[in-house]
Amino acid sequence: MNTEKPTSTAAGNPLKPATKIIHAGAEPDPATGAIMTPIYQTSTYVQTAPGQHKGYEYARSQNPTRKALEDALAIIENGQYGLAFASGVAATDAVIKLLSPGDEVIAANDMYGGTYRLFTKVFEKFGIKFIYVDTTNAANVEQAVTTNTKLVWIETPTNPLMNITDIAATAAISKKAGAMLCVDNTFASPYLQNPLNLGADIVMHSATKYLGGHSDVIQGALVMNDKSLREQLYFIQKSCGAVPGPMDCFLVLRGIKTLHVRMQRHCENGAIIAHYLRSHPKVERVYWPGFEDNAGYDTAKKQMRDFGGMISFTLKDNSIAAANKVLSSTRIFALAESLGGVESLINHPASMTHASIPREERIKNGLTDGLIRLSVGIEDADDLMDDLKHAIG
Ligand SMILES: *Cc1c(COP(=O)(O)O)cnc(C)c1O
pTM, whole model, 2 decimals? Predict the structure, then answer.
């Protein structure tokens, strides 16, 4: 038997997504034949003579468990190169470090609070300018372009309002402006959406979420096609040192193997819960990309394979008190930050995940005090509905 990584079936046919996801990056261990990539818990590697080694010198720069994961990340995102980081924000941090003082970034005005905090509180003082626009209308991005625009940063669907940005249209505008496009693909996961195929230059993931999938690891990832971009980002990864440990890489590698089955159930349950909430007399509005009357529906349908398991909603009584009652009454939906694990979570963005965005800014962008966010897990959908029914009352 050929022990190389499978890239096709024995008949020579290309692998379908489910097969690719399970076999991505998995090469039997060359030392023992172990089918699972071992956790290479080592800081350094013995050299046979000065400078003579097997491609591994020091574990900040190279680690075989990390390499298997990075290869897997590239394969499942349909990219050439993957890089793993100690967290999602460490991956974002590496992308911004490609820039120089005076450079401008056009960023979505509705995105993960930690990305906004990193941009405004850490990088602005180094002379990088961030311009926030509503990227759901590509014309707004085009208008914000200047000769200093070096990067466009979008998230789609967005956290927590599930707004959809047209990746292909934004990629075309970025390209014309001579800027790179980076897409935070955390909410969709590579199973539902592949931004590199739509013209993006870099895909970013918080692997903490759907890629890991079991709420047991913090990790980030970047995937790209351009070799020189990979070299620059690898240089930043090893120079700044925000690398994940081998155990964490093992956990994400393991998580990726079930990404397709988990995502299928997240999507099924997400659709059931979104429709249930929409029919509930006490619910005002449900934010979920799969409703046909959503502004972003056509774009979502075009660029995503399904609509995912993330849902936000508001009650008709849009007060903090009413939201708090729901947030503290669920039994299966656990009150916690984060998302993308097998278990369902409930979250209050205004006081939890998005508390670092000033209230005025938040409300202007539609993130009201009463907004509730759900990460719908892969439990039984009837139990999840029952839980919400009781909590909403
Ligand atoms: C969680 C998250 C991040 C940050 O990732 P960490 O792994 O927590 O550092 C970035 N973007 C989105 C959309 C996220 O949900």
Answer: 0.95
